[in-house]
Amino acid sequence: MRFHGHRDMLHDTDRNEAYARAIAEAVRRIRNSSDSEPYAVDIGAGSGLLGLIAARAGAAVTAFEVVPALARLAERVAADNALPLEVINAHSTEASGRRRASLMTHELLDSGLLGEGLLPALRHAWHELLEDGALSVPSSISLFVQPVHSTFLRDAAHLSGAAASVLGVPAAVGACAGGPQFFELRASALIREEELVPLSGPVRAVDIDMTRPPASGVQHPPPQPLPQAKAGGGAGQTPSDDRLRADALLTWWECTMLEGEGGGDGGEGGGEGGGEGRGEGGGEGGGEGGGG
């Protein structure tokens, strides 16, 4: 079984160093503020990278990984590095009644942000696995949205009349908008080639504080328009031509690894409609979340 997404993450030096700094700082804070030894849960452990970083920093660690092959790999990596790591081959939401942890590590952030079960995993962890005041790495995330004009993305999302004719596809099928979806791609190349034209400034659409249980039910946070220089991404300057139509929503997210810890931010993107933009950082994985 191959896990190409994990290979990409394991070779993402900036991402891994940001995690390592934040986890080491979190363990240090816990040790300095409590008489008990730091105890961490790693949710969606993948090959065990984040849990082993916490173990190397001095925490006792329980790692949850739902994919059997990855759980075995995490155990092997821990043994090869002579680091203590308890690996449980199960989804973290199946666990309850355990010792509560003072630290949670996880990598449940896919390009679309919520596709790996981030919210239910966080909600369960805060109710069943974590003690009050526990630290989370990452600690918060913000999703940004920007409408763009892009004939390339619109053509990629729609069947042309010529293609429909050759394939014998009924006109009604070609006109169907389809279900919700996003294209995962790096937007920087399209921006350089002027294939993406922003129609407004970026908006901060959603903030998720991972240091507390996420709210249940449908949430309607008010979007927050931001100065483009403050958004950390986006497709450049807004044109003066108001005749351009919106073909896609360019979306990306920015993540804070640990509040008060410098150099701990990472970014990635998602998208919907006709296309998606992706920042230069971040990662995604398999299983429950696949943390490396």
Molecular structure report:
Keywords: S-adenosyl-L-methionine. GO terms for molecular function: histone methyltransferase activity; protein-arginine N-methyltransferase activity. InterPro entries: Arg_MeTrfase, SAM-dependent_MTases_sf. The protein has 292 residues and is an alpha/beta fold. It has two domains: 4-139, Rossmann fold (3-Layer(aba) Sandwich); 141-276, no CATH class. The protein has nine helices and twelve strands. It has helices spanning 4-10, 13-33, 49-56, 68-80, 118-129, 151-157, 161-167, 171-175, 187-192, and strands at residues 39-43, 60-64, 86-88, 101-106, 130-137, 140-149, 197-198, 203-209, 224-225, 248-256, 265-273, 275-276. The strands form two sheets. Strands 6, 7, 8, 9, 10, 11 and 12 form a seven-stranded antiparallel beta sheet that branches. It has a five-stranded parallel beta sheet with strand order 3-2-1-4-5, sandwiched between helices. Strand 1 (39-43), helix 3 (49-56) and strand 2 form a beta-alpha-beta unit. It is elongated and about 70 Å long. The model is unreliable at 228-232 and 269-291 (pLDDT under 50).
Keywords:
disordered C terminus, about 30% helix, alpha/beta, 9 helices, single chain, about 290 residues, about 25% strand, Rossmann fold
Q: Note poorly predicted spans.
A: 228-232, 269-291
CATH classification, class level of the largest domain: Alpha Beta
Give the total of domains. 2
What Rg, in angstroms, do the CA atoms define?
Answer: 21 Å
Question: Would you identify the CATH H-level superfamily of the largest domain?
Answer: Vaccinia Virus protein VP39
How far is the first residue's CA from the last residue's CA?
15 Å
